[in-house]
From TrEMBL:
It holds the Pfam family WD40. Keywords: Actin-binding, Hydrolase, Repeat, WD repeat. Signal peptide: none annotated. SUPFAM superfamilies: P-loop containing nucleoside triphosphate hydrolases (SSF52540), WD40 repeat-like (SSF50978). One of its GO terms (biological process) is actin filament depolymerization. This is Uncharacterized protein. PROSITE patterns: DEAH_ATP_HELICASE, WD_REPEATS_1, WD_REPEATS_2, WD_REPEATS_REGION. WD repeats lie at residues 53-84, 184-225, 229-263, 487-519, 530-571. Transmembrane segments: none annotated. Binds actin. Enhances the F-actin depolymerization activity of actin-depolymerizing factor (ADF) proteins. GO terms for molecular function: actin filament binding; hydrolase activity. PANTHER family: WD REPEAT-CONTAINING PROTEIN 1, WD-REPEATCONTAINING PROTEIN WDR1.
Length: 743
């Protein structure tokens, strides 16, 4: 069983000349943003804890928590709003067709009963407010003639709604039912964002005319402006109020964020100017912001999320970045398996560190669009859609010296001879190119349509896959290839070929969803019937000890096969990546990292299941009962003076004291996927503390499952305490008894 251990999240989708409107939940310290069809839930104090909602049929644009944080409303470019739960499986509450075009912003009413959405329209209203449970209208919103970029719901009674947009107008509505009250044309360019203060006394609008204007929230009248002295020198795209309602945070195309002090009369003066780290290029323009608790969150055009401290804004910000476009390939550095490199179509390579997450992004010094790449030592080799192969050394989070060569045709696949990394094999439409460094040794026409290739680590053998589903094996001598064998097993075009680390095997996958493991010496099939995907196989990876191979597919799944077991004993990770899996690599014998069209990376581990026993003898007895000899490695035990687990351990018996000690070391218990508390009715101090800690942990870790068992458990009380979870009754074993009487 493989469980999700870490998620390296994508960054928000951005568009030049447009702001993005992010939101969050102060209680859980999480933020919401969109990328593609996904809505990302990201925790600011736990960057590796990420949840992804991917049920939109079209590109998602904006998402908002309900006031009680139990629901999320998200919208997309089709004008659809989906309302779904924040716990466990994101249960869908409702789906409504709200507008006839893209939705740019939405807000909940403070009582959580109504939602207002704004955006584009095709001959219809640009704004609509509706009941969250029925979808019925709660007002008419006239007054706009062009796209409405933002809307806001007054957080206190009497309710008010304010909208603003591309017609330079700020409209004020009273209700419910809501109706037009007044309009303001105080801005001379697009009005990008409007937000009410937390106490409901004011609202502020910001515009591409570099101005911010404040209004009275009850009457809608203008009361002040942000000072032009030390103000922004470019379009202001977003604004967010501080929790106390006395300051605002703004971001601008001038690449700065500013903290403004708002006086009682409604005027604002600059308190602090924040500059995010970066190269100063266009991608460093700031397009989104959020003030949440002590975090000042800014988002750049390049997608980088910077976290400043509101209490100490002079402190260097924490940067969270990643990919915005779908990931094409990934590799794990052989010199340090905890370092992962991933590439995306936009030419960006990002460096990740296992257990930490984002480490750095490499400036675009290689291909503008990367098709595939490989790494060996401290050097990376990439191929792109511009017909070039780049070689570059790595200097920390930056490129070193880089060289390129034009091979005259678009690369389809790339493989390095790991023992002689200067030697590379590149597949093109009807043949292959042999490279030594950045010099083309030979271009060979093979006479068939080539789709994939691989070269052995010692550079003596090459395997080329074709459109016809055949594997052609060649010996490599200098600049020539000599065909030695043709293997026919696949029924579709070959998509990927990889040698095992011990070079005793190789594996191949095709468009017809089949993978095959071959013995390199005999060239016979070693593992067959690997037909459990439902769409083409895009990638595969070998375990470092060559005992397992993993495949990733367009069907969004990752399947892990053990070489010495039949294919039917596979481990399947369903829904690994929305849109398909395009990259796979093992970091160790128990961990595999995947990437896909959703622009995210995920680390999967074969996790343990701890079974908690209240008494030390109980855990030892059950361990001895189920694992009678120490040669049994799938079951382990952990109690005072006894710790025994093996590399294949999946179930570990332990005392409550040991589990509490592990929580002190790792508050997220990241090595576990399921926790089972037995004999819970005993209600010791250890058990009660565990219940409190695990209840909070289950809320933070959506992938974790908690099972509570006992033969005398008052199930209703424990169920109500644990979010009204399901109760299952399992009949125990019974034994025949004979009753004897003395008289």
């Amino acid at each position: 069983m493989a469980q999700l251990s870490e998620t390296y999240a994508c960054v928000p989708s951005t568009e030049r000349g447009r702001g993005i409107l992010i939101s969050g939940d102060p209680k859980s310290n999480s933020i919401l943003y969109c990328n593609g069809r996904s809505v990302i839930i990201r925790y600011l104090d736990r960057p590796l804890q990420v949840a992804v909602y991917g049920e939109h049929a079209y590109q998602a644009t904006v998402a908002r928590y309900s006031p009680n944080a139990e629901w999320i409303a998200s919208a997309d470019v089709s004008g659809t709003v989906r309302i779904w739960g924040t716990h466990n499986d994101f249960v869908l509450k409702n789906e409504f067709k709200v507008l006839s075009g893209r939705i740019d912003d939405l807000q909940w009413s403070p009582d959580g009963m109504r939602i207002v959405a704004s955006g584009e329209a095709k001959g219809k209203s640009f704004v609509r407010a509706f009941m969250w449970d029925s979808g019925s209208n709660v007002g008419e919103f006239d007054g706009h003639s062009r796209r409405v970029l933002s809307c806001a719901f007054k957080p206190t009674r009497p309710f008010r709604i304010v909208t603003c947009g591309e017609d330079f107008l700020v409209n004020f509505y009273e209700g419910p039912p809501f109706k037009f009250k007044q309009s303001h044309r105080d801005h001379s360019n697009f009005v990008n964002c409007v937000r009410f203060s937390t106490d409901g006394s004011k609202f502020i609008t910001v515009s591409s005319d570099k101005k911010g204007i404040l209004y009275d929230a009850k009457t809608g009248e203008k009361i002040g402006e942000l000072s032009s002295e030390d103000g922004h020198k470019g379009s202001i795209y977003a604004v967010s109020w501080s929790p106390d309602g006395k300051q605002v945070l703004t971001v601008s195309a001038d690449k700065t964020a500013k903290i403004w002090e708002i006086s009682e009369d409604g005027n604002g003066t600059v308190k602090k100017t924040l500059t995010c780290p970066g190269s100063g290029g266009v991608e460093d323009m700031l397009v989104g912001c959020l003030w949440q608790n002590d975090y000042l969150v800014t988002v750049s055009l390049g997608g980088t999320i910077s976290l400043f401290s509101a209490s100490d804004p002079d402190k260097a910000p924490l940067s969270l970045s990643g990919h915005m476009k779908n990931i094409t390939s990934l590799v794990v550095l052989q010199s340090n398996p905890k370092v992962i490199l991933s590439s995306s179509y936009d030419g960006l390579i990002v460096k990740w560190i296992q257990g930490i997450g984002y480490s750095g992004r490499l400036d675009r010094k290689v291909n503008t669009q990367i098709k595939c790449f490989a790494a060996v030592g401290e050097e990376i080799v990439s191929s792109g859609f511009d017909n070039t192969i780049w070689r570059s050394s790595l200097l920390g989070d930056e490129y070193g010296d880089a060289e390129s060569v034009d091979i005259g045709s678009q690369p389809k696949d790339l493989s390095l001879a790991l023992q002689s990394p200067e030697l590379a094999l590149v597949s093109i439409d009807s043949g292959v190119v042999i490279l030594r460094g950045t010099k083309v040794i030979s271009t060979i026409d093979l006479g068939f349509a080539v789709t994939a290739c691989a070269i052995s680590p010692d550079g003596s053998e090459a395997i080329v896959g074709g459109q016809d589903g055949k594997l052609h094996i060649f010996s490599v001598k200098g600049d020539t290839l000599t065909e030695e064998a043709v293997l026919e097993k696949h029924r579709g075009a070959i998509t990927v070929i990889r040698y095992s680390p011990d070079v005793s095997m190789f594996a191949s996958g095709d468009v017809n969803r089949e993978a095959v493991v071959w013995d390199r010496v005999s060239r016979e099939v070693k593992l067959k019937n690997m037909l459990y995907h439902t769409a083409r196989i895009n990638c595969l990876a070998w375990c470092p000890n060559s005992s397992m191979v993993a495949t990733g597919s367009l069907d969004t799944c990752v399947i892990i096969y053990e070489i010495d077991k039949p294919a039917s004993s596979r481990i399947t990770i369903k829904g690994a990546h929305l849109g398909g899996v395009y990259g796979l690599a093992f970091t160790d014998e128990c961990s595999v990292v995947s990437s896909g069209e959703d622009a995210c990376l995920r680390l999967w581990k074969r996790n343990l299941i701890p079974l908690n026993q209240t008494a030390s003898p109980s855990s030892s007895f059950l361990f001895a009962l189920l694992s009678p000899t120490n040669s049994t490695s799938i079951i382990g035990v952990h109690r005072r003076h006894l710790y025994w687990t093996g590399p294949d351990t999946v179930i570990k018996y332990m005392t409550d004291g040991m589990l509490l000690r592990e929580i002190l070391i790792d508050e997220n218990l990241s090595q576990y996927s399921v926790i089972m508390l037995d004999e819970a009715h005993e209600r010791t101090i250890h058990i009660d503390v565990l219940f409190g800690l695990l209840k909070q942990l289950v809320k933070r870790r959506l992938d974790l499952r908690l099972i509570v068992t006992s033969v005398t458990l008052d199930a209703e009380k424990f169920s109500s305490y644990s979010f009204n979870c399901n109760i299952f009754t399992i009949l125990g074993r019974t034994y025949p008894m004979e009753i004897l009487y003395t008289k």
